[in-house]
């Protein structure tokens, strides 16, 4: 066991536990977005940042283990500013026409935004719409993806498949279906997506029409209900 101080309170914790796990065990609130326990603990979204005494930079609570004597602060002005900035950056790459999205009201990103009181995005909004892969049994809307990689981890760790993966690098890095034919139709990637980036096809007839010309088919053509405003 190790001893850790969070916001002035001293706790005993199992060696190997993350800061987030210990905080949650003691009802200390730390927001998360990409985190899925034992499935996706990759520290992608940086929404769970905390301050640790002796470390200059802020650290992600979800994938940093506690050490004996660690002193953590979860709610300082610096932490709050950084979380908000990271959330705003995520939102700047996200299609925020929420009223037209099927996840409106059940979207974890939307809920987090409300909870953190983020009502403005001071960055240029940029997202790409891409043609869908018409051979694929799901619809993926890349402009709603926040690159949390939950779908990638879920497919790999829960289904032992590799339908999704991160492709390209740097600012061009994005999730894509790299093995669509392997899809087991389990729907777990959809269930674990925090936004409306993944969903079942809801316009089968149009998709079958589209299958012969996948390069020219857009999501708007396949699932117009999602895009109409
Ligand atoms: Fe920790 Fe995303 S929840 S980095």
Description:
This protein is of the alpha+beta class. The chain folds into two domains: 2-87, Ubiquitin-like (UB roll); 128-227, 2-Layer Sandwich (Alpha-Beta Plaits). The chain contains eight helices and nine strands. It has helices at 19-25, 77-92, 108-115, 150-158, 188-192, 204-210, 219-222, 224-227; strands at residues 2-6, 9-13, 49-52, 59-60, 70-73, 138-140, 164-167, 174-177, 198-200. A hairpin with a 6-residue loop joins strand 3 (49-52) and strand 4 (59-60). The radius of gyration is 19 Å and the shape is globular. The chain starts with a strand and ends with a helix. Bound molecules: FE2/S2 (inorganic) cluster. Residues 32-35, 43-48, 60, 62 line the site of FE2/S2 (inorganic) cluster (FES).
Write a brief caption for the model.
The chain is of the alpha+beta class. It is 26% helix and 15% strand.
